[in-house]
Amino acid sequence: MAVPKRKHSNSRTNKRRSHDHLSRKQLTYCPQCSSATPTHTVCPKCGYYMGRTIVEVNED
């Protein structure tokens, strides 16, 4: 079994992990009701997506 001969330094470990961070979700504005929604999802307020109403949302 392969075993490392020396400990990796903190600097080397952190350089390797520099690309592991999370990115923010990209938001767009619904053309129908102008609320911010994540990309490629149906608008939760009006049910609008890709130029048509997908989900009927009842107004309570």
From TrEMBL:
InterPro entries: Ribosomal_bL32 (IPR002677), Ribosomal_bL32_bact (IPR044957), Ribosomal_zn-bd (IPR011332). Transmembrane segments: none annotated. The keyword Ribonucleoprotein applies. Residues 1-24 are annotated as: Disordered. One of its GO terms (biological process) is translation. Keywords: Ribonucleoprotein, Ribosomal protein. One of its GO terms (cellular component) is large ribosomal subunit. GO terms for molecular function: structural constituent of ribosome. PANTHER family: 50S RIBOSOMAL PROTEIN L32 (PTHR35534), LARGE RIBOSOMAL SUBUNIT PROTEIN BL32 (PTHR35534:SF1). Belongs to the bacterial ribosomal protein bL32 family. This is Large ribosomal subunit protein bL32. The gene is rpmF.
